[in-house]
Amino acid sequence: MTSDRFGNEYAPGLPYARGDLIRSTQDDLTKLRAAWTTIKGHVASNGIDSVFNFSGLERSAHLQPEDLGLLDDELAPALYGDRLNALCLEHLGGDPDQHSVLISNRLTAGLLVSILTMVKPGETVIGVSASYSHPANVRAVKRAQGTLVDTVGLHGFRQALQEHPTPSLVILTRLAVSYEILPISEIEPIIRLAKKSGARILVDDAGGARVGPAVFDQPRTLELDVDVAATGLDKYGTIGPRLGVLAGNQQLIERIRASAFEMGIEARPMLYPAVVRSLEQYDPARVRELVATTKKVGGELKKLLGNRITETPVIIQLMGEDVLEIAMERADLKERPVMPIEATAALAMLLLRDYGIITVHLAGIPPGTAALMIKFVPPETLARFGGARKLALAINESLDQLARVIGIPQAMRELVLGAPPVADMAST
Q1: Does residue 83 sit in helix, strand or coil?
Q2: Spans of the chain below 70 pLDDT
Q3: How far apart are CA 239 and CA 282, in angstroms?
C-alpha cells in the first residue's frame, strides 16, 4: 500500500503521508521538544506523579548502589562485560561458542551499522514482516545504496525470491510496526528459503525478541538459526536504557563491531551495569501481564469508539485515518484540514497537555506509524492514573478537544510544535 484512506501518497520510506505542519524529521524533533516543555510544566506544577508513561517504552537506567561508582568507560566493561554477554546471549537464545554480542547506541544505530556492513551498493535486500519493515531499515538500506524489496508474509517473500533470487540480505521482522506477528509456521520456511538463496538473515526483533517467546511460545531469536539478532532494551519487559543489543555469528558481529566503533555508534560502556540490571530482572510473565492490561484498556475504548479501535493480538490502536475522521465528524468538517499523522500528533499533545499522558507517538523520530497506539500498559501506571475506564475517557475527551482546533491552522501549529520560532514570528 502506497497511500492512505484519503488518497494521500506516502512519504518516501514512511508508511504515511507528510503534511504542511509536520514536513520532516526536523519537525518531528520540534514536536518532541514541545512535548518535553509540556512535561517540564507538569512536573513543576504537580510533581513527577502527574506524568503517566503509556508509551509502552521504558528508557531509564535502573542501577544498584554498588553500580554507581563503576559508571566508567573502562571499569564497567572490565567488571560487567562477561555478565552482560552471558545475559544477552541467554535473552536471545545464543551460544557463547558461536555467537558474540554488541551493544549499540539505540536499536536504530545497531540496524544501521549491521546493514551497512552486510550490504554493498547495488545489492538487493528483501524485507519480510506481517505488514511492512520499520522505517529504520528502509533508511539504512538506502544509506547502504541497496535496493529494498519489502514483502508481507511467506507468500510475498516467495514471490520476491522469484523476481530477486540472490538477495544479499533478508531482514525479517517478527513483530511488525503494526504489531501483527509472523507465525512460526511462516518464519521457519522464510528462513529456509533465505538460506537456500545464499542470503544472510538479520532479524529486527525490537519487541519480538520477548513477545514471540513469552506470548506466542516461539523460539528465542538466535534459536531460529539466523546470522544477526537485533533487539532493544527499552520495551516489553526490559526496562531500559534505550540501547540496542546485537548478537550473532561471531565473525560477522566482530566486523559489525569494528564498523560501529569507526562510526561512533557503539554504546558507552559505562552503561553496561544498566544493561545487566535490565536483563537480570526480565521475566516473560511480565510481558503477558502488560498485554493483558492493554486489552483491558482496549475493551473500555471499544465501548466509546466501537469498531474505530483496531486490535492486534498484543496491542490496540486508533489508526491515523480514524483519528482524523473522528475529529472531522465531531467538528462537522467536510474537507480534510491536515494529514492523518498530524491529527494523531495533535491528539498525542492534547493527551499530554491535559492529562500528563505520554504516548509512543511522541517518542518516534519519525514515528513508525500514523496510529495512536496503546500498548504494553504497566498495570501499576494504569492504577495510578485511575484505571482503564478513566484512560479511555481521557482519549475520547481529547478527541473532542481535537475537533475544536483541527480546522484552525495556527492553533494546530502551536499545539503540535509549540510557540513559533522568533524568526517565524518576525516574518508574519
Answers
A1: helix
A2: 1, 420-428
A3: 8
User: How much is the pLDDT for 422?
Assistant: 46
Cα 220 to its chain centre, rounded Å, is: 19
C-alpha cell at 128: 519480510
DSSP secondary structure letters along 129-179: ESS---HHHHHHHHHTT-EEEEEEHHHHHHHHHHH-S--SEEEE-SB-TTS
Q: Torsion angle of alpha carbons 210, 56, 312, 158, nearest 10°?
A: -50
Contact 204, 170 (CB under 8 A): no
Measured CA to CA, the distance from residue 214 to residue 231 in angstroms comes to 15
Element (H, E) at 252: helix 250-263
Cα distance between residue 409 and residue 182, in whole Å: 41
DSSP per-residue string spanning 286-324: HHHHHHHHHHHHHHHHHHHHGGGEEE-SSEEEE-HHHHH
C-alpha cell at 388: 482503564
Q: Which domains does the chain have, with CATH numbers?
A: 25-56+284-420 (3.90.1150.70), 74-267 (3.40.640.10)
Q: Give burial (CB, 10 Å; 0-12/13-18/19+) of 31.
A: buried
Report the pLDDT value the prediction gives residue 420, as an integer from 0 to 100: 65
Closest CA to 182 of 133, 238, 236: 133
Average pLDDT, the chain: 94
Separation of alpha carbons 412 and 401, rounded Å:
11
Separation of alpha carbons 137 and 135, rounded Å: 5
Residues present in the chain in total:
428
> 190-246 pLDDT, tens per residue?
999 999 999 999 999 998 999 999 999 999 999 999 999 999 999 999 998 999 999
Q: Which residue is associated with the grid cell 496510529?
A: 371
Note the pLDDT of residue 424. Answer: 46
**Cell numbers at residue 265, please?**
555508534
- Cα separation, 258 vs 113, whole angstroms: 10
Question: Is the peptide bond between 77 and the residue preceding it cis, with omega within 30 degrees of 0?
Answer: no
Q: Specify the DSSP element, H or E, that contains 109.
A: helix 107-118
Distances (CA, A) of 190 to 34, 202, 235: 43, 12, 26
